Amino acid sequence: MAAIEIEGLRKEFGADTVAVDDVDLTVEEGEVFGFLGPNGAGKSTTINLLLDFIRPTDGRIEVFGTDVQEDPLAVRERVGVLPEGYGFDPLLGREYLEWAIETKDADDDPDELLDLVGLADDADRYATEYSKGMQQRLAFAMALVDDPDLLVLDEPSTGLDPNGMTTMREVVRERAANGTTVFFSSHILSEVQSVCDRVGVMNDGRLVAVDTIEGLQANLGGRASITLECSVLPADHALETVDGVVDVAVADDTVEVTCTGPGVKEDVVTHLAARANIDDIRSEAASLQSLFRELTEGGRDETADERGESAHSSGSEADARNVEVSR
Ligand SMILES: Nc1ncnc2c1ncn2[C@@H]1O[C@H](COP(=O)(O)OP(=O)(O)OP(=O)(O)O)[C@@H](O)[C@H]1O
Known about the structure:
This protein is of the alpha/beta class. Helices cover 29% and strands 28% of the residues. The protein has eleven helices and 14 strands. Adenosine-5'-triphosphate binds at residues 13, 17, 19, 37, 39-45, 316, 320.
C-alpha cells in the first residue's frame, strides 16, 4: 500500500490563485520523498491539504489507504508533523513534549526526545525564549512523538545551524531505516540530495518532475557543470556566449557554468582563462541547483531570468509567510 496517494489535486484561493493545479503523486511506504519548488510553488498548500488543515477545490488524498477528508483523525494518529512557522506559547520545552505525548496517548520519554534534538539542557526554559533554531528543534521533537508511520516536515531546516541540520538528517535517516515514510519540503537542495530517495519538483502549482536525483540528471540530457573560482571575476566575462553553455550562476568570484555536455568544459576554461586568473576548478555532473533552475524556469522568478540574472531560489526564511496551521 502507498503511504501517500494524491489524485487530481487542485486548490484555488479566490478567483485568481491556483495554488495546486491537478497534482497526481504516489509516495511509497518507507520512502524519503523530497518536495522542492521555489517560493509560492504550492508546497505548503499541498502539505496543508495532505493533513486536511484545508480542503481541496478538487481531487483526493489517501494516507495509508485512508481518505484524509473522510477520516482526518485516523490519518493524524499515524502522522508526525513539523509545520512551517510553528507558533509557541509560554510553556517550558519539556511541557510542550509532555503535551504532545499526552495528545497522542503515547509513552515516549520527553527528556529522551529533547536530548535527541540537542535540547536536553534547555528542557526547563520557556519555548518562547528559545532561539528560532531551538524552536525548530523542539517542533521537530514533537513531530517524532509516538514514532509516526509518516513524518511530514515542512522546511525542517529553517533556522537550524549546521549541527542542527546534521542531527535532523541523521534522525530522518534513522527513522526511514526503521520503516518511517518521510515527506520533506525544502529549499536546501544539498539536503534533499543527501537525504531523499526521490524528489518532486513543484512550479506554479504543478508537479513538473518526480524522479530520483540521478533520473532527473539523466532526463535533462547528461548535462555537466563546472565551477571556477577566480581572484577577480570580470563583469564582462561573457561566459553565456560560449557554445554549449546553458546557464551561468555567479556568487562573488565563483561562477558555476552548466553545459550541454562534458566536452564544453574545456572551451569554458579557455574562454575564462583569457579574461581572468583562475584559482580553482571543480567539475561535476549537473548540480541539483542547475536542475532545479531548469525545471522551474518560467515560474515566479521569470522576471529575474528576463533581466539576465540568476534565478536562484532564495532561502525561504526572509519571505516565508509563516503559515499558521491548527494542530
Ligand atoms: N491562505 C491563502 N490565501 C490566499 N492565497 C494563498 C494562501 N495560501 C497560499 N496562497 C497562495 O498559494 C500559492 C502557493 O503558496 P504556498 O504557500 O503553497 O507555496 P510554497 O511552495 O509553500 O512557498 P514557500 O516556499 O515560499 O513557502 C501562492 O501564490 C500563495 O500566495
